[in-house]
TrEMBL record:
GO BP annotations listed: tRNA threonylcarbamoyladenosine modification
Protein encoded by which gene: tsaD
Annotated residues for binding of Fe cation: H117, H121, D311
Record CDD domains: ASKHA_NBD_TsaD_bac (cd24133)
Record protein name field: tRNA N6-adenosine threonylcarbamoyltransferase
Gene Ontology MF terms in the entry: iron ion binding; tRNA N(6)-L-threonylcarbamoyladenine synthase activity
Bound cofactor: record note: Binds 1 Fe(2+) ion per subunit.
Top-level taxon of the source organism: Bacteria
Family: Belongs to the KAE1 / TsaD family.
Catalytic activity line of the entry: L-threonylcarbamoyladenylate + adenosine(37) in tRNA = N(6)-L-threonylcarbamoyladenosine(37) in tRNA + AMP + H(+)
GO cellular component: cytoplasm
EC number: 2.3.1.234
A UniProt-annotated Pfam family: TsaD
Annotated function: Required for the formation of a threonylcarbamoyl group on adenosine at position 37 (t(6)A37) in tRNAs that read codons beginning with adenine. Is involved in the transfer of the threonylcarbamoyl moiety of threonylcarbamoyl-AMP (TC-AMP) to the N6 group of A37, together with TsaE and TsaB. TsaD likely plays a direct catalytic role in this reaction.
Length: 380
């Protein structure tokens, strides 16, 4: 039986994209946040190359785990559990993390928790601002996702209200940076240029904000095309492209829509807290505009510090710790990486038997189904 505690000591492993993250938390307290990034290896391709990322995770895994344990000053044998991102993300990259987590958990005799990357991006704020209010409204904006999520219980009940119908917000930043020849990843560099520019210089379109458009969904591909066309026209006319103004005006269009829809979702659902997470939450303009609009609407804004907003292991450990504290079922040894794990599945519970710790009574339908099938095969 796993020990249940208010302040579980949990190690979390994150490998869904290009960051090998290993974090260690005790309840809501961050003890270590070790990250090895392969971002430089992808820069010349202008985007993350899955095979390169997987190989880099493999090489970085053991040293990053050792560094985290050393930074935290704890011994692996004292852990209450090991959590790992089970999905969504790049299949090969996730597989490295899941395999490592299983190996460590099995060898150490610790419960294993396969958790959701998106729920982790929300839960990480507990390390910064303490327990999340229930429900929490979350705006998740990263290179792979842009979603509005209502979370009555981060460990078991996360409801998607809307998401992007084309590009993710971070993806739009990355693509516009490429058009402007600013390198990869685009978010931080556009953020920097925008500080010198005029956000009202060019009026770019605000996607899906018409009266008949879906209220909580996002679209950034029209904006991306509009910005690219505007730049092309300048270049064709032999004029200089005012990079800072384009960056500021583009950023303003993204941030305007994100904050407007997030505040609207809070009001519509009577939620007085907004959490913003994911890599784009590191954006200075997004933070400033969200702060002002939330204040006007009487909503308390919670945004973790930038290092906790981008992918890291601490966020996985934070959600794992919450799973342990709430006595959620641990995962089975046959936990697999699921590149399209739905956001509604905060974790992947085991099927109640045959797994390491005998205290799980999960309700994973896929597992149950699998179990039924194998029984049939056995007896027929
Ligand atoms: O959460 P994250 O580290 O990885 C994913 O799960 O995707 O997010 C990475 C994304 C990239 O697209 C990057 O350009 C964007 O977050 N990003 C930013 C900023 N810092 C990172 N976007 C806008 N402003 C920033 N300051
Ligand atoms: Zn992420």
């Amino acid at each position: 039986m796993a020990r249940r505690t208010d302040e579980p000591l949990v190690l979390g492993i994150e490998t869904s994209c290009d960051e090998t993250g290993v974090g260690i938390v005790r309840g809501h307290t961050l003890l270590a946040d070790a990250v090895a990034s392969s971002v430089d290896e992808h820069a010349r391709f202008g985007g993350v190359v899955p095979e390169v990322a997987s190989r880099a995770h493999l090489e970085a895994m053991v040293p990053t785990i050792q560094r985290a344990l050393k930074d935290a000053g704890v011994s692996a044998k004292d852990l209450d559990g090991i959590a790992v991102t089970a999905g969504p993300g790049l299949a090969g990259a996730l597989l490295v993390g899941v395999s490592a987590a299983k190996a460590y958990a099995y060898a150490l005799g610790k419960p294993l928790y396969g958790v959701n990357h998106l729920a982790s991006h929300i839960c990480v704020d507990q390390l910064e601002h303490g327990a999340l209010p229930e429900p929490t409204m979350a705006l998740l904006v990263s290179g792979g996702h842009s979603s509005l999520l209502l979370a009555p219980d981060i460990t078991a009940d996360v409801r998607p209200l809307g998401s992007t119908i084309d590009d993710a917000a971070g993806e739009a930043f990355d693509k516009i940076a490429r058009v402007l020849n600013l390198g990869f990843p685009g978010g931080p560099v556009i953020d920097r240029y925008a500080r010198e520019g005029d956000p009202d210089a060019i009026r770019f379109p605000r996607g899906l904000t018409g009266p008949r458009d879906p209220i909580y969904d996002f679209s950034f591909s029209g904006l991306k095309t509009a910005v690219a066309r505007w730049i092309e026209a300048k270049r064709a006319a032999g004029e200089n492209v005012p990079v800072a103004d384009v960056a500021a005006s583009f950023q303003e269009a993204v941030v305007d829509v994100l904050t407007r829809k997030a505040v609207r979702a809070c009001k519509d659902h009577g939620v007085d807290h907004l959490m913003i997470g994911g890599g784009v939450a590191a954006n200075t303009r997004l933070r400033a505009m969200a702060e002002r609009r939330c204040e006007d609407a009487g909503i308390t804004l919670r945004v973790p510090r930038p290092k906790l907003c981008t992918d890291n292991g601490a966020m996985v450990a934070a959600l794992g710790a919450e799973m342990v504290a709430r006595g959620r079922a641990s995962s089975s040894w046959d936990l697999s990486a699921d590149s399209s794990l739905p956001v509604t599945e905060s974790h992947v519970p085991g099927h109640g038997d045959g797994h390491g710790h005998g205290h799980g009574h999960g309700h994973g339908h896929d597992h149950d189904h699998f179990h039924e099938l194998s029984k049939d095969n056995l007896y027929s």
